[in-house]
Amino acid sequence: MVPPSGARHYTISSTAGKHGDVWSWKMPDGHTAYRMSMSLRGWVTETDEVMTTGPDGRPTAIAIRGYTDQGDATEDFSVDDGGVARWKTSVDSGSAPFGAKRYNTYGGPWLAGERDIEALVAAGAGGIDLLPTGHASIAIGQPVQIDGPQGATTVKLAFIRGYGFAPTPVWLDKDNHFFGNAGVLSLLPEGYEKNGPKLKDLQDEATAAMVRDVARQFLSPPNRTPTLIDHVQMFDSIAGRYLPDRAVLIADGKVAATGAAGSIRAPAGATVIDGRGKTLLPGLWDSHQHVGDDWNLLQNLATGMTNYRSPGSMIDEAHSIYKRRAAGDLLAPDGKISVIIDRKDPLAAQGALTVSSAKEAVAAVAQIKAAGLWGVKFYTSMDPAWIAPAAAEAHRLGLHVHGHVPAGMRPLDAVRAGYDEVTHINFIMMQAMPQEVVDKANTAARLEGPAKYGKDVDLDSPAMKAFYAELAKRKTIIDPTLTVWEPLLTSDGKAISPEYAPFVDIAPPAVARGWKIAGYPLFGGLTREDFRKSFDKMVGLVGRLHQAGVRIVAGTDGYGLELVRELELYQSAGLSNAEALQTATIVPARMTGMDDRTGSITQGKAADIILVNGDVSRNLANLRYVDTVFLDGYRLNGAALRQASGLSGMPK
User: N or C terminus: fewer CB in 10 A for the chain?
Assistant: First the structure.
């Protein structure tokens, strides 16, 4: 659809620039139309929606057409004369009595959600019941003033419960109608884009107050008394082996002693845990966790992650996380943070420091060092000629260098220019891609190329073996994030991907429904089976890298819930159970220089440890069954953490 002159116009933007547009207008027949067009770092969304409303203002017919990077966006909803609601998407279909409920769309243009906001406001504290399932409510805060094209404008911060794991911020106008969304990506009326950072800061402050109360419930003196875990199987991450029938004493925030079962005496006032049938492990690392969401950090703990490496967070967010965590106001894993540097370009990464020359790239590196952060991550729109001087400056300053591979470079070019680490397995596969794919790696070609050609790559060719050998010789680290590509390449809308299937029954219904995707849109006569074969090659590539001696670190680039599946895929690639687990314990601890205090259960190290139900040596899936998390010596109940982070029980 083409928006008419005078259509309401919103833009999608970040600190890196504009990424898309959304329009809304009344059609001649009285229906409401929406159009969304977005290109986010090369991932394209084009969707149209036509909505018909009934006498009570509820949508009684919705038709959505278009596509996203997760597949066909086609969606239809209608209510028949008998009051039965019916819906069909690319991943599900169903029917139910309409009653007083409201249909929650699977997808569609973002602005179309404004009607749902109005309904939530009208419903008050009681909220509304949703179709296909679920319940939502909204709480409205105090007004604030922002600047707009016509001067001062009053807006109000509100939080919606029921759409996600945590309260979702949304901005209303003075009359409690939808105004916009703010965040790393903001959806705001045209002309108000400059207010995005201010609105984000305000909602972050409100969220910080909520999570502070949660943190103080857990980080209390009774939870930091000594703990003895006896008769437990323990994972020795340094040796890469499981030790049966061990005892571990935690006191004063550290591992006070380890030994044979029954050999350690519990001090007075200690909590004693019988570890039979359980496994004690170093807390897990997610080496591709873009930290910045306070509630997600809490959920990371609930799923056993005590440490992270962020491959790209904003400087102010990084400082806020460190400061509040140190003060006991944020319950979160500990870790190291990098900042993204990208060329100033429409395809630049959101949240990046954008630069226009090699000189500016070097200056951005210095800015990251001055901020006290750990590393620099270069992105796909960087000019290849800027990488070597910027990487050299980063190394001179003691910073880690990693990132996507810029368009026009292959991974070996990036490593030779100064990369210590390459993120995402598709960029490693780029070594074997045709030049026309390499030249457009800052677009969707970075997935479409490996999806199309990956199945035919000979992983054991002399050229690929030489590639692996040079990576190993240079001590290059690889962060594969296989769980990013598995749903996109293998899903067909019939089932939820293995990353999320164990959490479906304990996640909010709207979240669980969103996990079921149709998969990346097929193109060029390729089939879903072709894509699956290409993904299998990506898995095989991880195995070849490991066999060649290249270090692997496990990362998700997602919620963090995907981490165990990432390890399972490494095991499928040929790593042993223990080797896969090392990629999420001691290897990232060494990469970040934190192995003197974390990454293994060693006397004198920080007590960042997890206790899980079951025998992990037999099945990595048991890592999901977190019983207790020890964070800086605090003893945190796994069930209570899950509940606080929006998970209603133990995963399957």
Answer: C
Backbone angles phi, psi at 442, to 5 degrees: -95, 10
Read off the tokens for 424. Answer: 């995402």
Most distant CA pair in the chain, distance: 82
130-169: buried (b, 16+ CB within 10 Å) or exposed (e) per residue?
bbbebebbbeeeeeeebeeeeeebebbbbbbbbbbbbbbb
Closest-CA residue to 605 (of 581, 628, 626, 633): 633
Q: Rounded CA gap, 173 and 165, in Å?
A: 25
Place of tokens 């049966």: 244
CA 68 to chain centre: 18
CA distance 54 to 48: 20
Report which of 118, 119, 5, 108 is spatially closest to residue 51, judged by C-alpha positions.
108
* CA–CA distance, 390 with 383 (Å, rounded to integer): 11
pLDDT, tens digit, 9 for 90 and up, residues 171-227:
999 999 999 999 999 999 999 999 999 999 999 999 999 999 999 999 999 999 999
Specify whether the CB–CB gap between 217 and 641 falls below 8 A. no
Instruction: Provide the CA 393 distance to its chain's centre, in angstroms.
Output: 29
Q: How far apart are CA 381 and CA 342, in angstroms?
A: 6
Rounded Cα–Cα distance for residues 649 and 46 (Å):
37
Type of residue found at 445: A
Label residue 132 by pLDDT band (50, 70, 90).
Answer: very high
Return the DSSP state at 181: B
| Token duo for residue 216 | 């103080």
What span, in angstroms and rounded, lies between the C-alpha atoms of 247 and 429? Answer: 44
In contact, 90 and 73? CB cutoff 8 Å:
yes
DSSP 551-580: EE----SSSSTTHHHHHHHHHHHT--HHHH
Under 8 Å between Cβ of 333 and 309: no
Q: How many CB atoms lie within 10 A of CB 388?
A: 15
Answer whether 108's CB lies under 8 Å from 49's CB: yes
Please provide the size of the chain in residues: 652
Structure tokens at 493: 């809308």
The first and second tokens of residue 217, run together, are: 């419930």
Q: Quick check: 139 and 126 in contact, CB under 8 A?
A: no
Q: Find the Cα–Cα–Cα–Cα dihedral 558, 593, 609, 325, rounded to 10°.
A: -70
pLDDT tens for each residue of 138-178: 999 999 999 999 999 999 999 999 999 999 999 999 999 99
As a dihedral over the C-alpha atoms of residue 193, residue 197, residue 201, residue 207, rounded to 10 degrees, the angle is 60
Question: What percent of the chain stands above pLDDT 70?
Answer: 100
Residue 518, φ and ψ in degrees, nearest 5: -85, -10
pLDDT tens digits, 454-500: 999 999 999 999 999 999 999 999 999 999 999 999 999 999 999 99
Residues 73-85: tens digit of each pLDDT: 999 999 999 999 9
Nearest CA to 649 out of 500, 504, 470, 442 is that of 504
